[in-house]
């Protein structure tokens, strides 16, 4: 279809356009570094305590990061996705759990732009910005569907959702469910509930190997009332609406990259502090030994390559989201595959770095008080979110046949 045939007045809108300039990028990188430094001080102790991260959310809120993507006219910072992804990467180097919270917050908060009518988006963003909401979610697609039944006063929600990231600390929770009955029968709606809504039960059952402070426990809904004011909008297969999923996958790639960079930085510090050298080595110290230099050099080079790809795609995402309703299925499919490529290499490199960093840090670095294992536990846990082998298949199908995977909340 030619551009002249598009009636832009009828297309869905998004509030983002253009790209971040150097001043914006450096500002948010500096903010993220400050937050990361604060989180790094006691990351291991907080991980061991496994408490809901309310104080960490307060740190994100006070820094302004929660409102980075909120349009300036709605009281936010008016920033770009490139800045948001970079902030996730920086914080992941210090605390993967809190980086996950922030990444999901950006995706969940941006549901306003992807699902809500343009006429209501400004009010939603303004309310979020004014109250400093952290947005959690309850949309895990592998769980049985929730029951959303039409009633006179709106809808009644029942059921259980596991892996609801940010739910136990989020000011609001985004929920997706298909309607039964009424005028919207069969439609899938996105709606927003405050964490304290009557009938919403937080089970607090998140106790996993890694990402322990991601507040990802299960939520049970007992006849929860959902009114029309809670509804963002219908989830449709429109390219711009479904672009939200590749955006979240891009956040994953950045967050895995950040974990790899954090493991490298921690390993470098330990290596430089090691005394003497292996008894068979002619080098004066472990850090001067070519064997250890080769290993850490290999890991650093591979991480740098993933970083370059992430930065390219972070900037490209602003281009694609800026197309809004003019984004077509081919454009959406192409960027989704490009992001899948990042997901593949970011996953594999982060796991490799977090594992092999021990080869240069030695047996003493396996002590529980060192905390080097936190990087591996975090990336190992979250990288199982959706099988990376299916991302490889997406890339291969597109490269060979030009076909995309069916639309879902994973593709």
UniProtKB/TrEMBL annotation:
InterPro entries, sorted: Acyl-CoA_DH_C, Acyl-CoA_Oxase/DH_mid-dom_sf, AcylCo_DH-like_C, AcylCoA_DH/ox_N, AcylCoA_DH/ox_N_sf, AcylCoA_DH/oxidase_NM_dom_sf
SUPFAM superfamilies found in the cross-reference section: Acyl-CoA dehydrogenase C-terminal domain-like (SSF47203), Acyl-CoA dehydrogenase NM domain-like (SSF56645)
Disulfide bond as UniProt keyword: no
Keywords from the UniProt entry: Oxidoreductase
Signal peptide: none
Domain Acyl-CoA dehydrogenase/oxidase N-terminal: 28-129
All residue ranges annotated as the Acyl-CoA dehydrogenase C-terminal domain in the record: 251-386
Pfam families per record: Acyl-CoA_dh_2 (PF08028), Acyl-CoA_dh_N (PF02771)
Protein's name according to its UniProt entry: Alkylation response protein AidB-like acyl-CoA dehydrogenase
Biological source species: Paeniglutamicibacter sulfureus
Lineage, top ranks: Bacteria, Bacillati, Actinomycetota, Actinomycetes, Micrococcales
């Amino acid at each position: 279809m030619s551009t002249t045939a598009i009636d832009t007045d009828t297309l869905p809108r998004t509030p983002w356009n253009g790209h971040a300039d150097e001043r914006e990028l450096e500002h948010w990188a500096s903010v993220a570094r400050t937050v990361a430094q604060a989180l790094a001080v006691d990351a291991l102790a907080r991980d061991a305590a496994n408490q809901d991260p309310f104080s960490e959310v307060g740190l994100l809120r006070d820094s302004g990061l929660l409102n980075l993507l909120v349009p300036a006219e709605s009281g936010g910072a008016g920033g770009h996705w490139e800045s948001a992804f970079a902030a996730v990467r920086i914080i992941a180097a210090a605390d993967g759990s809190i980086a996950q919270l922030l990444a999901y917050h950006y995706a969940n908060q941006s549901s306003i732009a992807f699902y809500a009518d343009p006429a209501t988006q400004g009010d939603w963003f303004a309310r979020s910005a004014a109250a400093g909401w952290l947005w959690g979610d309850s949309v895990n697609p592998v769980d049985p569907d929730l029951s959303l039944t039409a009633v006179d006063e709106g809808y009644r929600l029942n059921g259980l959702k596991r892996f609801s990231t940010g739910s136990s600390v989020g000011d609001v929770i985004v929920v997706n469910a298909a309607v039964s009955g009424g005028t919207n029968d069969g439609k899938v709606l996105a709606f927003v509930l405050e964490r304290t809504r009557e009938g919403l039960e937080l089970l607090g059952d998140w106790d996993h190997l890694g990402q322990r402070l991601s507040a990802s426990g299960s939520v049970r809904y007992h006849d929860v009332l959902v009114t029309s004011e809670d509804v963002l909008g219908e989830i449709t297969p429109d390219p711009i609406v479904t672009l939200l999923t590749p955006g979240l996958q891009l956040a994953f790639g950045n967050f895995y990259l950040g974990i790899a960079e954090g493991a490298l930085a921690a390993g470098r510090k330990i290596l430089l502090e090691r005394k003497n050298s292996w008894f068979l080595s002619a080098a004066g110290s472990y850090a001067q030994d070519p064997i250890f230099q080769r290993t850490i050099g290999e890991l650093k080079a591979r991480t740098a390559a993933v970083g370059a790809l992430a930065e390219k795609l972070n900037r490209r995402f602003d281009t694609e989201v800026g197309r809004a309703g003019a984004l077509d299925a081919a454009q959406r499919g192409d960027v989704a595959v490009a992001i899948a490529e990042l997901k593949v290499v970011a996953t594999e490199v982060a796991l490799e770095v977090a594992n092999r960093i021990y080869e240069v840090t030695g047996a003493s670095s396996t002590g529980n008080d060192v905390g080097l294992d936190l990087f591996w536990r975090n990336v190992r846990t979250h990288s199982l979110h959706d099988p990376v082998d299916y991302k490889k298949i997406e890339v291969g199908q597109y490269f060979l046949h030009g076909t995309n995977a069916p639309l879902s909340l994973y593709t």
